Known about the structure:
2 copies of one chain form a homodimer. In chain A, strand 3, helix 7 (142-149) and strand 4 (154-157) form a beta-alpha-beta unit. In chain A, 44% of the residues lie in helices and 14% in strands. Chain A is an alpha/beta fold. In chain A, the strands form 2 sheets. In chain A, strands 2-1-3-4-5-11 form a 6-stranded parallel sheet, sandwiched between helices. The first copy, chain A, has a 6-stranded mixed sheet with strand order 7-6-8-9-10-12, with helices on both faces. Chain A has helices spanning 14-21, 25-33, 40-53, 59-66, 82-97, 111-123, 142-149, 173-186, 207-214, 219-234, 251-263, 276-288, 306-310, 322-337; strands at residues 71-76, 101-106, 128-131, 154-157, 167-171, 192-195, 244-245, 270-273, 298-302, 316-319, 346-349, 352-354. In chain A, helix 8 packs parallel to helix 10. Chain A is built from 14 helices and 12 strands. At the A-B interface, helix 4, helix 5, strand 2, helix 6 and helix 12 of A face helix 4, helix 5, strand 2, helix 6 and helix 12 of B. The structure holds a DNA duplex.
Amino acid sequence: MPADRGRAAGPPTISEVAREAGVGRATAARTLGGYGYVSPELRERVLAAAEKLGYRANALARSMSTGVSHTLGVIVADIGNPFFAGVVRGISDTSRARGFDTIVLSTYEDLDEEVAATNVLIDKRVDGFIVASAAVDKGEVAHIRAAMERGIPVVLVDRAVAALDLDAVVIDNREAAREAVETLIAAGHRRIGFVWGPPAPEAPATRRELLAEASRNLWTDGERLRGYLDALDDARIPFDPEVVMVGRKTEERVTQEVARMLALPDRITAVFCTETDAVTGALRALRAAGLAYPRDVALIGFDDSSWAAVMEPPLTMIEQPVHELGAKAAEVLLDTIAGTEPRREMHTLRSRLIVRSSVAPPS
Amino acid sequence: MPADRGRAAGPPTISEVAREAGVGRATAARTLGGYGYVSPELRERVLAAAEKLGYRANALARSMSTGVSHTLGVIVADIGNPFFAGVVRGISDTSRARGFDTIVLSTYEDLDEEVAATNVLIDKRVDGFIVASAAVDKGEVAHIRAAMERGIPVVLVDRAVAALDLDAVVIDNREAAREAVETLIAAGHRRIGFVWGPPAPEAPATRRELLAEASRNLWTDGERLRGYLDALDDARIPFDPEVVMVGRKTEERVTQEVARMLALPDRITAVFCTETDAVTGALRALRAAGLAYPRDVALIGFDDSSWAAVMEPPLTMIEQPVHELGAKAAEVLLDTIAGTEPRREMHTLRSRLIVRSSVAPPS
DNA sequence: ATGCCGCGTGATACCGGTATCAGGTCGCGA
DNA sequence: TCGCGACCTGATACCGGTATCACGCGGCAT
């Protein structure tokens, strides 16, 4: 019953514990803080008093005094996306194991929200943070630069940012995309739709413009485009802007765009989706067109999930090592915080194509 | 270029800004803190100095001094579950709009983790928190009680806890389950499997034991069981322990259990799943048994999602107002923090059965 | 010219910890 | 018996803000 603490209003402080135990403040602090020396007898008294009062150290005060918060920040695009949820779990599992809490913030792919999130983390004095940034070019990284200048360690996850010289933990996006598209090509497809998401209002007409556009897009998507082109090039299939979607990758837009590609005189016989929501969007378009996969259209997408396996027929998908991605990012960050010289390199993890039954030869 | 701050090591403090501006510390504090009076001229100087130095207030120090952190805590079972992800988004959207940050912690359905999470929030001195607690009986709520005794406002979300007299924001679980099972019964089903998750090792043999078990289970699942029984009772269908699954609702276990129910001499012709992962688990069992829905087995589950709509045939599911659930919980908590007398009531939101094509009469 | 009032400003105590350091006690050797 | 050192303990400065309060200065009334 910690209620009889006299006039004290808030939670018990170390001074109150000291008074209760009849010792000096410093002695109580040493006992409870686990530093310095305290005789067994006094230690016992302090512990008993703390127990009685229900004392818990004020982490804010401690951080103020020591300058470290034992807290990591995490900024992701959307925590509701199973991909990021998995990454976050990887981060919190390993950071918790090393005594760090995590504060997770979602930006919902909005750069202003990302800046705001960064400021929240700076203000709360996290010891470092991990970010899957929506920033692409130099003009968009000021907030991260600002954090770096304050001496806050930063690690990028999922998305590398060319304008930033930082550790980044990513997967082999280009290779993964290439492998998927090669699988489609090997099955005999030549008209392969590409569901992409650069900010451009319409599809670039030429390869050159396409690549230019790629550098204005998220790094992951840029890489995936390169993988798509790699596979096309190897098979000497000409690039056709008509079968690549541009603009925001919402499920609705994907449905419209795939429907458009399906209505083309020379319609697509396969689709490659760079995101899981794009897969459901594409599937809706197929159904609306009265088409079935893999018979009429073959399909491969990014980010495997449980439902992809129970679809009938089950979907061939690219599986990303989400937990490892997060765990590795946390590890690199924690090492940097611990003082290990930052290497500032790109840590590339391998993804895996899970072959199921959504790919068949074109009809 | 905030680099020429002299010998200062960390980020700039208010004293440094004051010195730079050539004013007293208090004046700089008043300007930057937005309180008290400062003449336009000095204000201008302070602002310029802060800008030049890249000053950002230390939220920790501010909280120490004022006693409020403008931060809400959120404890959910699994942020990777789209249901909780939606709830969290609802919470952060409305709390951000009212000037509060949120710290989200996942317990992965482990009570010890929940206790640890609660302590983290207490230690970080959040102004209040929202929790979807895994606690069921009196012996498991000590950590929440402790927070309440410290004067920290707490609001429950998704799961009410009988042992706690607190505001709770939930949906009409019992009614939702009843409606779903009634739909199954209306289609002609009498053997309806129930995928449930009480801690019991085996299915209770009698109704009485079942209900007793329900009170040892998560509140939501208890209510959903009652809804299931309500529907059975109304149709005078006897309860059969053989068709209710008990124990942890992992996807693998669901698959095994549904397979068992499918192998019964008097096999089930319909399944009701109280969770989205249970739906995929059940679907796997169907496929393994060479059965198709809705022809061989009808199916309804909790938590609608995009993929449920693109399944072939599309799934009939219960949609929960996830965002509203979170928004309402945040609202109630924020009001309590703001000093409005807490009402300690149950706020019930309506769910909705989305009828698609996974229910047909038994063959 | 003097006194009073009020406004604007800066000095300072405080929040609850950490960490340094001074001082008191005790034991042991000379 | 005295002195010195080791060992504990408690007093206190500090972290970076907030908030109270005292003080100096100018203006106005008398």
